[in-house]
Amino acid sequence: MADIKPTAAPAAKTTTSVQPKRNGNSISWIAPVVCITLGYIIWRFIIGSPSNFTKPDLNGGFWPDHEGAKGGFPRMYLGGIIVPILIGCFLTVLTFVIERFLTVSKAAGTGNIAEFIRKVQFHLANKDVDKALAECDKQKGSVGNVMKAGLRKYKEMIGNTELATDQKVLNIQKEVEEATALELPMLEKNLVFLSTIASVATLLGLLGTVLGMIRSFSALGDSGGGEAAQKLSQGISEALYNTALGIGTSAVSIIMYNVFTTRIDGVTFGIDESGFTLTQSFAANYK
User: Fold this and answer.
1) Is pLDDT at 91 greater than 70 in this prediction?
2) Which residues form the domain of 169?
3) Which of 8, 17, 43, 94 could be stapled to 84 by a disulfide with Cβ–Cβ 3.0 to 4.6 Å?
4) What is the mean pLDDT of the chain?
């Protein structure tokens, strides 16, 4: 008689409570276009208003050749066509600073992250998963979302009699990793614009300065005497507006980029600590 080999029992299936987030990012291409357009409008119609010059070019079209600026602010117009691009870059930085501030503040949630994790640890030590879940609902941030996803799997694994403790811990860890993979992109999204503008704005400012210097020395070659020196000094002053705008925009961008990355690092650390808390607690309480 042939031997009948026993078939292995099918592995227990586990489900995930993590749902993918569907957040559009249309601001990433709308904001730069709108801001640069707005920068041109500010440069052309506000800074370059004919009332700001003694010799306005009323038929200049896209780039009127105004002369005789009535003060320092209108003189910025004479810096050339790079000025509206730099203004647009600065407005883009402000837009993404506001957008990142709102997003990161929401991700940080309410209250102190370290205190939240301590409360969850306390409830888990008392084997009260429901109260730990209630703390996640109060936290309302990325750490709370990751912890909540892990706690749901934690609760599911408590009642699971088919898996060994090590397998249950791995399932909880996997759930936390999946939830973390959905939260982190939201935190880091659009920071690339701040880091890019931080580098590009300075280069655009230098480009505008070089173009302004070229125009100044060309004017110097077409004139002579004391008038030439006056035009040269005026042209250099106008060209340096580009440098000032570029450096200022770059400085704001770098500062805010570092501020946001520091806050994101704090949230990320809280997420990592929450995953460690869940796996260690389960391994200790449900051997």
Assistant:
1) yes
2) 27-285
3) 43
4) 86
